[in-house]
Amino acid sequence: MDFLYGLGQIIGVHTLLGLSAYVVLQTGQVSLAQAGFMAIGAYVAAMLTVLAKWPLLVALAAGAGTAGIVACIVGFPALRVRGLMLVIATLAFGEAVRLFFFNFDYQIAMGGIKVGPVGGEGFRQIRYFPENGWTTGQVMLLIWAIVAVVMAAIWWLDRSRAGAVLRAVGEDEVAAQSAGINLTVAKVAAMTIGGAIAGLAGGIYAHYTTHIEQSNFSILLATFAIAYPILGGLSSVFGTLLAVIFVQGFLIEVLRPLGDWRNLLFGALIVLAMNVRPRGLVDGAVARRIAGILGRSGGERRA
Amino acid sequence: MLELIDLSRHFGGVKAVEALNTTIEEGQIFGLIGPNGSGKSTTVNLITGLLPPTRGSIRFEGEDISALPSHTRLARGIARTFQNIRLFGQLSVWQNLWVAENGAAHRTAGRIGRWLGGSRADRIRLRAELEFSGLSEKADELAANLSFGEQRRLELARALASRPRLLLLDEPAAGMNAEEIAALDDRIRAIRDRGVTVLLIEHHMELVMAVTDRIAVLNFGQRIAEGTPAEVQANPRVREAYLGTTDAA
Predict the structure, then answer these.
(1) Per the domain annotation, does A290 fall within a domain?
(2) B92-to-A1, A57, B64, B142 alpha-carbon distances in Å
(3) Exposure of B248 by Cβ count < 10 A (0-12 exposed, 13-18 middle, 19+ buried)?
(4) In terms of residue numbers, what domain contains A204?
(5) What is the longest distance spanned by two Cα atoms in chain A?
(6) Burial class of residue A83, CB neighbours in 10 A (0-12, 13-18, 19+)
(7) Which pLDDT tens digit goes with each residue over B146-192?
(8) Which residues pair with B13 in a beta bridge?
């Protein structure tokens, strides 16, 4: 049972991380900074509950907000570069954040022991859940409630005019600005929303693992963040969820008995999945079917 | 309505547009013609703000708009179509129009609502725009799945969705057959009759001569003639530009 809880928590947090990249990818920006935003959310939220004794939800919101503000600031210079240059620039930023936390010490004495982040050792004793008597089941429920709310919000954004604007920017920037879209607003907004969601994922992650360190937020995690929406397809939020379940649930856990052969098969299966479904697991056609089941499709019907 | 004053755009040593002066009056269908590489598309890109001018200025309804970004010019009422169709292929036909819907008339209260969905009146207007372009049946179709002719009509509909006062058509007849060109002729007049001033860039001479009120001719980035279709047709410099230099008689 604990194993399933653990898996459920990972899938929940990674879904949020994947969705953070999903929003940014809508505008055609490939960001490898998502793990960095997640780290910011994780450290800020954890420091607020542990050191400042803030309530959890407020701390999570503050962590998400901080990551969102940083993402907004990063969004402006990111406007000046695109394609591979943007990938490198965001990668550099993500690594800079990681190295910042590698060097970041902030400890205060509480009840005779020193708590707080200590550089490379990381931040231990993030004991909000055990201290407040949360059961594993309740933690799980909280995580999935947050995932559900974020998914619903992005689902709704996708259906709105703003969602169409973000996609239009991703498809053709020249046509988008000629159609009256302010590219700066659209791209920075996507970056900000994505950063806030990644920060939220980080805050949750910090509290259920109880121990975070800079190496958790490496380039590998940033790669996973963009791999989920690309593998799942950019047509629907359900694609990202499905991709996370596929990667974390199937590829990593079900294939675990294969030992070292797993990593080989892991890569091969992703290549296979991308070949069989080039527009992602949930492509436009499937997304429309889901939309049909859930009601309204696009904006047109509401006219 | 639109004044180009000493408008120039150089790419390195190439003078794509050089010291162009012309005025387009409100309600006109104004033709801009010239051989390939004469600077027509560059002129459109300058007017819509995709390129900054090297020198000179653009005045629209009495105001200098030379420094405004593209999206602001659209909000002021300048819309365009592209020579090579540029739609949002993975958006539906309806979303293509929805994105371009211009809320300049709305003020701050309507701003957020506009981002999220727009008012009921906007939706009705966009439906009428689909109707005008004969695309009502295709509203939920992905733009990429439309036929070539439908894509051209959709691009025009997207431009009209922004409620332009000046519409720039960059070679709208490219790739069309005679029947479709005749329909385009009617459509351009219908757009003018809605109160939209039209700047038509076109290679298809029959269409340009039939539909425009006034024509400017470019060659090597410079205006070599301007006048009514009849005047331009009779101008020896125009013939020379199109047919090649003949020895001085």
Answers:
(1) no
(2) 45, 38, 36, 4
(3) exposed
(4) 2-217
(5) 65
(6) exposed
(7) 999 899 999 999 999 989 999 999 999 988 888 889 999 999 999 99
(8) none
Q: Which amino acid is at B201?
A: I
ipTM: 0.88
C-alpha B23/C-alpha B59 separation (Å) is: 9
**Model's pTM, two decimal places?**
0.88
Residue that the structure tokens 């002129």 belong to: B43
Question: Looking only at Cα atoms, what is the longest distance across chain B?
Answer: 68
Q: Say yes or no: B42 contacts chain A, CB-CB below 8 A.
A: no
Rg (chain A; Cα; Å): 19
Cα separations in angstroms, A37 against A105, A247, A259: 19, 22, 32
Count the neighbouring beta carbons within 10 Å of the beta carbon of residue B27. 13
Q: What domains, with CATH codes, occur in chain B?
A: 1-77+164-249 (3.40.50.300), 87-162 (no CATH)
Out of B116, B140, B158, closest to residue A179 by CB: B158
Most confident stretch, A62-76, A217-231, B123-137: A62-76
Q: B91, A164: Cβ pair inside 8 Å?
A: yes
CB atoms inside a 10 Å sphere around CB A184: 14
Q: A217-238 pLDDT, tens per residue?
A: 999 999 999 999 998 988 899 9
Give tens-digit pLDDT for A79-89.
Answer: 888 888 999 99
Q: How many domains does chain A have?
A: 1
Which chain B positions have a beta carbon within 8 Å of A297's beta carbon?
A: 140
